[in-house]
Amino acid sequence: MTDLLVSDFYAFQDLLTDREVESVLALRAFLEAEVRPIADDYWARAEFPRHLARPLGELGMFGPMWEETRAFANSGVYRGWLALELARVDAGVATFVGVTSGLAMGSIGVGGSAEQRAAWLPRLGTGEIVGAFGLTEPLSGSDSARGLRTTARQTADGWVLDGAKRWIGNATFADVTVVYAKDVADGQVKGFLVEAGTPGFTATKIEDKISLRSVQNADIVLEDVLVPEERRLQGINSFRDVATVLRLTRADVAWQAVGIAIGAYEAAVRYAGERQQFGRPIAATQLVQDHLARCLGNITASIAMCVRVSQLSDQGRQRDEHSALAKAFATARMRETVAWAREVLGGNGIVLEHGVARFFADAEAIYSYEGTREMNSLIVGRAITGHAAFV
């Protein structure tokens, strides 16, 4: 089988089918030709290359798990590997795909009626339209299960949404945003499809980020936003339903973390082979080799954990604590790995042109989003002890 990554030290690629490998290699070729040459420039300008949406859709990157949008039957390991490949080249593009494919399409796939799935998933799947996911709020992040302040009030004309959201990826240019709000009648969280241009809905780009600069995160304000009943996700009736979506996407973030670690590691390996000091490449020194071996150990252990979580998902056995442990572990190891990779480059490690700095910076956002390490550790801790310790 064709090698996908020299960084796949234990050949986890062997778990993929030939058809899955073919798809991954097609994605790799696209990323190397179309994304890597422009990634640093868009990152520096804090802009997103929106022209990539349609080509990514043609490659089957959006919604590979749903019957309405998948090009072929595939495994959880394959879907995770796609996230890894995207992040290995550009965490911004990986996040863009993750938001549309995992969070927005995931919300519709998990909570949408048959009619809603048929109406929205195919268009999102081709990249014809872009999705966003509105859960986090200015005053509610880790406590979203209880602390949502955005409200939904049912009227004769539909539902009226009021509130605010923050850190909503893609929201400045998304065609539809899944907004989660608390029903004032029963206190339960419900999901709504809010189309761009709906009166009372505004999205303002968050400026001056030091991480994931190309991702267009937004502050959203909702003022008397009227959403018809047919835009309410019929299967989202409590936060438990939202948690089902997050369980799926949290594992994808763990795979993204592995990709970021690999991107930084491979750049460090290339640099170490080229950089001459004291008459020889720095790759020939013990301390550099120690750093690289530690990076590879982190990467390999993280892939193993992600693979098993994906397999459990395919078997219908994945629980919240499984994806939480994978996300917490992989992102922590990613943070170590990008730091060691940056250290291999010395001062050149903070300059975009040498291939590590962007991964080093973007790792900070991945470390925190979709559940901080602390919150995911508490999800695991509850499973271990039987006691909730969130407050």
How is this fold's topology laid out?
Blueprint: H1 18-45, H2 53-58, H3 76-89, H4 91-111, H5 114-126, E1 131-134, H6 144-147, E2 151-155, E3 158-168, E4 176-183, E5 189-195, E6 201-205, E7 218-227, H7 239-274, E8 276-277, E9 280-281, H8 286-314, H9 320-344, H10 357-368, H11 373-385
Parallel strand pairs: 1-4, 2-4
Antiparallel strand pairs: 2-3, 3-7, 4-5, 6-7, 8-9
Helix pairs in contact: 1-3, 3-4, 3-7, 3-8, 4-5, 4-7, 7-8, 7-9, 7-10, 8-9, 9-10, 9-11
Short description:
By secondary structure, this protein is α+β, with helices and mostly antiparallel strands. Helix content is 51%, strand content 14%.
Radius of gyration: 21 Å
Number of strands: 9
Query: What's the level 1 CATH class of the largest domain?
Result: Mainly Alpha
CATH fold-level assignment of the largest domain: Butyryl-CoA Dehydrogenase, subunit A, domain 3
Return the domain count. Answer: 3
CATH architectural designation of the largest domain = Up-down Bundle
In N-to-C order, the SSE pattern is HHHHHEHEEEEEEHEEHHHH
Question: What does the overall shape look like?
Answer: globular
Distance between the termini: 50 Å
Largest sheet, described in full? 7 strands, mixed
* Average pLDDT figure: 95
Point out poorly predicted stretches.
Answer: none
What is the helix fraction of residues, given as a range?
Answer: 40-55%
Question: What is the percentage of strand-forming residues?
Answer: 5-15%
- Give the number of helices: 11
CATH superfamily descriptor of the largest domain:
Butyryl-CoA Dehydrogenase, subunit A, domain 3
Pfam family, one: Acyl-CoA_dh_M
InterPro entries: ACX4-like, Acyl-CoA_DH_CS, Acyl-CoA_Oxase/DH_mid-dom, Acyl-CoA_Oxase/DH_mid-dom_sf, AcylCo_DH-like_C, AcylCo_DH/oxidase_C, AcylCoA_DH/ox_N, AcylCoA_DH/ox_N_sf
Family: Belongs to the acyl-CoA dehydrogenase family.
Domain Acyl-CoA dehydrogenase/oxidase C-terminal: 242-384
